[in-house]
Amino acid sequence: MPWELLGALPHAQRPNRTPTEQRTTTAPPHAHPPSVPSKDRAVTQHPSHPPQGHRRARRGKRLLGVALGAGLIAGAITLPNAGAADGPELIVNGDFADGTTDPWWWTADNPGEVVDGQLCADIPGGTANPWDAIIGQNDLALTAGESYELSYTATATAAASSRTAVQQAEEPYDTELTTVDQIGTEPTTFTHVFTAGTDNDAAQLVFQVGGKADPFTLCLDDISLTGGAEPPVYEPDTGSPVRVNQVGYLTEGPKQGTFVTESTDAQTWTLNDASGAEVATGETTPLGVDPSSEQNVQGFDFSEVTTPGDGYTVTIGEETSEPFAIGDDLYSTLRSDALAYFYHNRSGIEIDAELVGEEYARPAGHVNVAPNQGDDGVTCWNDECDYTLDAAGGWYDAGDHGKYVVNGGISVAQLLSSYERTLTTEGANGEPLGDGALAVPEQGNGVPDILDEARWQLDFLLSMRVPEGEELAGMAHHKLHDAAWTALPTLPHEDAQPRELHPVSTAATLNVAAAAAQGARLFAEYDPEFADELLAAAESSYAAAVANPDLLADPNDGIGGGAYSDAKLTDEFYWAAAELFVTTGDDTYKEAVLGSELHGDAEGVFPPGGFSWGETAALGGLSLATVPNALSETELAEVRATVAEAADGLVELAGGEAYGVPLGVDGYVWGSNSQVLNNMVVLATAHDLTGETAYRDAVLTGLDYLLGRNPLNLSYVTGYGERDAHNQHHRFWANQLDPSLPNPAAGSVAGGPNSALQDPVAEDLLQGCAPAMCYIDDIESYSTNEITINWNAPLAWIASYADDLGGGAAE
């Protein structure tokens, strides 16, 4: 999930970085480098004509499009104010009136001809990628800063997709426009407006229409590209200005909302039940302009209402909120759905329709079944080692098919912690995590299902270690992924690229040590042999990391997968030592914990911007505070005081935010929703330890934010709320690009607003956005709309906590 070029990751919250530096960084911290779309280095081009090319993150080039007569088209935004172009026509023979095809070209297997005044081509079935079948025209002259309108009419004998691009005709194939149009059996006219970022007197237009299992015939007509277009302005649809948690509010919890209005005077609000009957009324509190959204807002509070029910709404003037519920059983399905995310994204195993439904079932990926090359005998990138590893299994990290140890470590740790909390916290309920409770194929084996899921990843983490007898035995390879960026969309079993191990790193090794140490104490009851294996691996990996303390991942290693570089490792050493100490009680690890420069430093262990894969000390701090261990009473009290100090700061932060979110205006970075969630984990832990209601309430107002009470009036969790994100960036949950594929499964949380605008869609559509408005539910906006294991892990943790509250956990 989020990766980092050295010093470039905003959400890592490095203590030596200013907020301004964090906001202005341009290197994305995740699954795509700024200049390379996911698919582009995987392209094999036809000898005569280039494929789709590279889409660079330049300003002013993202398409804005309208499918006339067809509504919203995938990959584009429907905007009614797109201006008609009146410049010279750049396309030659776009209407095929003379009966010829010149100067159009095509790839070898789909020759075109004029049929009834249209250019038609038989597109072969069984191809893997859009660029396996192309129709195009070259020598188009574009001027930097000029806006252009592309228009064409298309029909197909069966539903098909065209990845349509205007781009360079040679390396590096930078695109000025790229979109995916859904073509049906009735003629549809598509219109797109874009602004050229560079001068180019020899650009090309391409329709990439491969990647379908079955053959079909495509016909194109009235193809036009003209300058002089008026670029339309993107305006997000924010729906009602009355913003609430669209799932609902716990019966005894806080119940607050936000009203966006130009008025500075208090307004009357009314709470109505599903029948429309008035339940409560009151006055809003003017809050002024919210810096995160630049909206003038007012707040309202109906916490005194405790009558359970569905279909509640709040009305202010003529504006009414989305419906919501009040009750205690609101988050049980969110807990199970958020955890199901991990089974959905398992590598190396068939995803069973009986567990996930036919829509989400798929064959095993990366298991050496053609076209896969498999993960069971992976060689090292650039021949940097002379051995292979069997690293099958584990979880696909995010939108790509990569598997990253530093991101997998925090993810599995938070699943383990969610279960461990049920063993250490009064009122926490382990039954919904137990054997037979979750969508995993290991049901009925006598082991809690959440541990079965965690084991799938723990086995992978162990497999990434350098074998015994090698020079760096015990160290862990940093990551495993395709040799080049995987096409979007691509199902794992259809991925034909070579898989490669990337060099070892100290950070990865410490992730293995920490996660394995935690797993060892939890599996001891269920599989002592596996627990012993985990502990041995944890201790040997920790020793290897101590012996090799500064082997850093290369920040430039970002081809085919994220770099995940991290130059500061004091947090990983602290986390690993803490988990080993909790598990073993060994004084060596205790000394490492107490001697760490982070120990006792609330902001050092719990950064206000949220902990993350690059800031992991909090994981160790939370284990020390909650899991029985060999600290003295005084030492334990000091650790717990650190948790409370961090939580106090977050309560104050949330209380000062118009939307109740425990995140400051500078916190809207790549994966901001995960930062919110991890701050909520700190708050929830403080509530578990102290019973202080203020901590609980800040968790719940954070949940309100994620589920709709936010500047965009959008639930960031798929399947939850009337207005939910559902086009997140993912390789095989890609309905926006291919209607035969599903949207993300319910319980998938989007990364959220990212004010750095680190992908072409965000950069072109969201310029000038207020921090909390820098989000778009578009599959191509990977820096705002990705989904990943280490964002869903804290979501599952918090959903479990919230469900326990509703089920009668300590108030």
UniProtKB/TrEMBL annotation:
Record-linked PROSITE patterns: GH9_3
Catalysis: reaction(s): Endohydrolysis of (1->4)-beta-D-glucosidic linkages in cellulose, lichenin and cereal beta-D-glucans
Keyword set, alphabetical order: Carbohydrate metabolism, Cellulose degradation, Glycosidase, Hydrolase, Polysaccharide degradation
Active site: D777, E786
Location of the Cellulase Ig-like domain: 238-321
Residues in CBM-cenC domain copies: 89-210
Renumbered residue ranges of the record's region Disordered: 1-59
E.C. code: 3.2.1.4
Annotated Glycoside hydrolase family domain residues: 331-798
Pfam family, one: CBM_4_9
Biological processes annotated in GO: cellulose catabolic process
An example Gene Ontology molecular-function term: cellulase activity
PANTHER family: ENDO-1,4-BETA-GLUCANASE
Protein family membership: Belongs to the glycosyl hydrolase 9 (cellulase E) family.
Protein name, UniProt field: Endoglucanase
